[in-house]
Each structure stands twice: as C-alpha cells, then as structure tokens.
C-alpha cells in the first residue's frame, strides 16, 4: 500500500540522521524534501520534525529556522505534523536536562525528564501500550518499535481529553511512546528505524495527509 | 513488556567486502556487505554493525559507500566502527546514514574524544568498543587490547569501561579477545564482570559457535548479542538465535 502524490517535508534544522527519515518516508510513495525553507514546510501536505541528541540543542536549532512558529501555524490550519524522538519531546512545555529547564514548543503540557530506569539509554525494540482506535498504529498495535532515548514524558496531558496517548515501559519507568492529537502526532521511538512495523506506521500517517 | 534482546550481526568490512578471520588474522572473503545486510534484515536482525578494518583511505571511502547504500534499503539501526577518530568522522558517518558510531583505539589515545562526540550528537550515538583479554597484571584481571588483540593498551578493561560511561558513552561493545574466533561460546565470566560495573546497555561479542551459546550471554548480563563468523558462514541464522533466546524465556522481536 502506497499513498502516491503526497508532499512531505522533513524539517532540516541541523539535527541527526535525516537521511533515514527521508528514505523511509520516500518508501511510502511520498515525494520527500529535506529543507528548512519556511514556505516549503508550511505548504507541504505533511511536515516531519525529527530530532536527535539534547533537548536544549534541538530547541535552539528549531528556533533558529523558525520551526516552532511553523509547527504552530500548521496546527492552527489543521495541517499534519509528525514529531520523532526529540522532535516528539520538543512539542511539550519544557525539557529538564542536568537541572536546566528549557522551554519547548508548548503544544502539550508535559515536561520532558530523565527516565528513572537503571539501564539508560532506553535502547532497543520495545512494545507499546497502544491507545484503542489509534490510526497511527493500525495493524501494528502488537509490534515492537526502536527506541533510543534517556528522557521522556511521564505525566499525561490530562487537559487534552481528545489526545490519544500510547505508552511504553522500560526497566520500571513508563513514558509516552506516541501522541495523536488532531493534526499533531508524535512518536518517542524511531519509525524510520523500526523495520516493517515502522514503515507501516509511516504509511498510516501519510494516509491521513 | 520489556525490551527485546537485540541480535546484531557484525560485518567486518575490508576494502568494500565482508571478511572474517580467527583473531583478526587469515581474513577470508564472506561477501558483499550491502547484500548481507539486506539478508540479515530479512532474517530479523535488530541492528547491523559495520566494522571498517581497511587501512587505506580508499578502503575507508568504500566503507562510507557501503553504509550509504545499506541505509537506502535497510530501515534498522546501523552502527559503524573502525578508524573513527574525530567529531568530523562521526559527522561523516551519520550523514551517510549511520545511527551510531563505535570508537576504540582513538578513544584510548585521547579519551576527551568521547565528550567531544557526545556533546555534539548525544550519548546514544556513541558505542565504546572494548577488546579485552585476561591480563593478570591488571587490577581486575582484564586488560584492553588494540590492533585486533595483538597489542596491550596497558589499561584495566573494567576501569576503562567504567570511565567510558563516566565520559559519556551510551553503550559498551565488549569483545572478548580470549573467546573471539574460538566458537566455544561467549566469555560469560567477562560479560558478568563488565556488567557489574556499568549501567549502560552492554553488547556481548566473541566466541559464539551455536544458537545455544546466546541465552547464557544474556543470563550473564548482556542486553544485546553480536556475532560475525557464524552468521556469515550460515552456521546459524539470526532466526535460529532468536528461537533459542525465546525458548530460554527472553523477549525477542
């Protein structure tokens, strides 16, 4: 199943391995552009916000290209955005690393904090407790996805009753694995690195564009 | 719910071909790395590791091309090690499509390299590859080697692993030079001793000969298991290793 003709922009703000996201999205049949161009990012059918590394560094990079405003403007016009890994984390109100609090994009109220697990980073293929009726996880509810992170969001955004929240457990701690909230979706794991299951999840997202 | 044990085929790449010898000597050709990478992915490999053992500039360029071509078609994490000596080397590998890099000799010579890499790219990007063997004159009884086990680095292996984690590495790849190439089973004692001193994920390598060798490595404390020879020569498949792990009660993908 491919969804032809969808234009997807992967936002390039100097973070991480964009090639994988580009290739995995291209494999859905979408036409993919990796760019920081504001107009292209606003006009695309879907915008993917990746992110690897530190929260503060990612927010700096994101702000430098006006990414926070691009996300806000797209959401205001009901235009789909998908955040991945730190691109998921920056959508929340703030991130705390080494005691330093950095404001995020503030789309959702949670705070990104270090996991309480002994074994960090949380690295590898884990299961997800998928919210019933999830569109993102259709037909891959029981699959494992590739996680690599030490920080996450532990508290639910309880003032967003319509947001669909999916969770993952690692070594005694439970954090958000994915959020689906109208046009705004995000995953803590890396669908572009999660083999066939990840490819299906990306196709599910592209199908909503 | 818990993490699956990762099964990681390792491809030792020399001038664009996969090779493997006993204790890094008597290299034999084992095929095209991109093709093998695709095959392992289809068999259920959870990650792939490329170790570049080329000595020449041309060989390194070829490895970069191998990573690039693999990342085009295989959507699982790729780790690249061998000859990584600077932040610029890491940047080049990540841009080619690698998700993680492994450092070894360069970090022994200049431990600051670890912080330089992890400050820029995060600690999840960096694997510390430790080639260890028994060295009775080291406090822990284990020493670090370089040059494929031929030279002693004069470092205590447990102390080095612990220091690597303090400096910021996100993962330890422990290769027992005593067990490497023997196919007599993983070095369970060494795995347990390293596990006791580090909290980051531990990848066990060296010595696997049969599918049954893998569950004891996990019992000894490994989060992931890595092998080269037995996968390349089709002695054991990735799927058979996963069956053995599942039969022993471990979660697999």
TrEMBL record, chain A:
GO terms for MF: glutaminase activity; imidazoleglycerol-phosphate synthase activity; lyase activity
GO CC annotation: cytoplasm
Name of this chain's protein: Imidazole glycerol phosphate synthase subunit HisH
GO biological process, one term: L-histidine biosynthetic process
Key word Glycosyltransferase present: yes
Primary residence: cytoplasm
Enzyme Commission code: 4.3.2.10, 3.5.1.2
Catalytic activity of the protein: 5-[(5-phospho-1-deoxy-D-ribulos-1-ylimino)methylamino]-1-(5-phospho-beta-D-ribosyl)imidazole-4-carboxamide + L-glutamine = D-erythro-1-(imidazol-4-yl)glycerol 3-phosphate + 5-amino-1-(5-phospho-beta-D-ribosyl)imidazole-4-carboxamide + L-glutamate + H(+); L-glutamine + H2O = L-glutamate + NH4(+)
PANTHER family documented for this protein: IMIDAZOLE GLYCEROL PHOSPHATE SYNTHASE SUBUNIT HISH
Upper classification of the organism: Bacteria, Bacillati, Actinomycetota, Actinomycetes, Propionibacteriales
UniProtKB/TrEMBL annotation, chain B:
The protein's Enzyme Commission number: 4.3.2.10
Active site location: 12, 131
Pfam family, one: His_biosynth
Involved pathway(s): Amino-acid biosynthesis; L-histidine biosynthesis; L-histidine from 5-phospho-alpha-D-ribose 1-diphosphate: step 5/9
Keyword Transcription regulation: no
One annotated GO molecular function: lyase activity
Family annotation (NCBIfam families): hisF
Record-linked PANTHER family: IMIDAZOLE GLYCEROL PHOSPHATE SYNTHASE HISHF, IMIDAZOLE GLYCEROL PHOSPHATE SYNTHASE SUBUNIT HISF/H IGP SYNTHASE SUBUNIT HISF/H
Protein name from the UniProt record: Imidazole glycerol phosphate synthase subunit HisF
Source organism of the structure: Microlunatus kandeliicorticis
